Amino acid sequence: MIPRRPLASVFAGVAVAASACSETPMSTFRALPQLREALAPLGVEIEAMPDGVAALQWQAPAAACPWVMQLDVAYTPAQAYEQDSRSMIALARDDDRLALVDGAPIPAGVAAKLSLYYEGLRAEKRGQLREAWASGEFFGPAAPTAGCMPRTWDPMEDALALAWPRVPARVVAVDEQWEGLRVDGKCNRSPCVDPNTGGGGPDNHHRACVGMAWRERLAGVFEIADGRFALVESHWDDGHAGQGIETDRQTLISLEHGRPVWSRTVVNHRFPQPAADRSFAPVVRTWTMQTLDGCGGSLTTLGLAPDPSQTEQVAHVLDRLAHPDPKTVERPAQSRSDAPAFPSPPPPQ
């Protein structure tokens, strides 16, 4: 019996073949210089591809190969209540009753249970082990405030919100846009205020007081070490053009392995925050993720040579993920309640 291929992969193969003889989209060319600049320090070489489409749908980690990612956060200027930091996060498939297929997208309507181990900012001594969930469109629990906050809210929920933008789980055209996850909660405050004073009151009652969702766009398809990768660019703002909070994100996705390879989010928070020098000033928060495991699609398989300390950290978090300390396990009763365990996707457009 001939195995049945997922319909999306069949369409993707036909579309890629059809676009192979076409010219490289202008959107891809525009994104290439900045992407090269970001990946050059990692030893990764990237080239534009003429592909006009890509099948965007997340996969879960392979049963025998957990993912490990390094998270870096930097602030300009230095902040009073949070310093630059480096953390590690690992994800493993936790429940195989769904019979997920390694190397295949998570089917529609399926939520795959994952184990998440985190060590770093706010969990330096013992780390923390939690449940996480994945679908073909997004991972969770994803912090609804990750797109606007000047500081870390929950480092694990921030990571799931920022590294995994919502994708449509279908074939997408280069330069096509779609609606991402909601940016909500405390992020609804700044749309409500005067961007010049930060104040509310009767004079600002005409404002919507509701933030928008992420705006997602497939910026282009690229080649790294004979593999195909998609760049998804994301934007969020509070409606105060050039004055309030604006956030931009780039996420490089392995199309073969259905995982984010590298992601960078820049939050330009223009409302003054307490700085390390005891002044108040706007802050730029830069959050970066890079993959360090040996699984398919990781930067280490594409040219990145981890330094000895990174290699040691990867081995450490994988060991803690496989042999958790009972004191690091978060019980369901201790889970935060302000973000749903698996947020609902936006309504169809």
Characterization of the model:
By secondary structure, this protein is α+β, with helices and mostly antiparallel strands. The chain has one domain (7-325). 15% of the residues lie in helices and 34% in strands. It contains four helices and 14 strands. The strands form two sheets. Strands 1, 3, 4, 5, 6, 7, 9, 10, 11, 12, 13 and 14 form a twelve-stranded antiparallel sheet that branches. A two-stranded antiparallel sheet has the order 2-8. The longest helix has 15 residues, at 308-322. The two termini are 39 Å apart. The model is unreliable at 1-5, 7-12, 14-20 and 333-349 (pLDDT under 50).
Quick gist of this model?
The protein has 4 helices and 14 strands. The chain is an alpha+beta fold and 349 residues long.
Fraction of residues in helix: 10-25%
Helices, by number, come to 4
Low-confidence sequence ranges: 1-5, 7-12, 14-20, 333-349
Domain tally: 1
N- and C-termini, Cα separation: 39 Å
Instruction: Report the portion of residues in β strands.
Output: 25-35%
Mean pLDDT: 88
Main pleated sheet = 12 strands, antiparallel
> SSE order, as H and E?
HHEEEEEEEHEEEEEEEH
Strand element count: 14
Instruction: Tell me, briefly, the overall form.
Output: globular
Structural class of the helices, strands and pairings? alpha+beta
Nearest-angstrom radius of gyration? 20 Å
What is the topological layout?
Elements: H1 7-19, H2 26-39, E1 47-48, E2 53-56, E3 67-76, E4 85-93, E5 112-120, E6 123-134, E7 139-140, H3 155-163, E8 170-173, E9 177-182, E10 213-224, E11 227-237, E12 245-254, E13 259-274, E14 280-291, H4 308-322
Antiparallel strand pairs: 1-10, 2-8, 3-4, 3-14, 4-5, 5-6, 6-7, 9-10, 10-11, 11-12, 12-13, 13-14
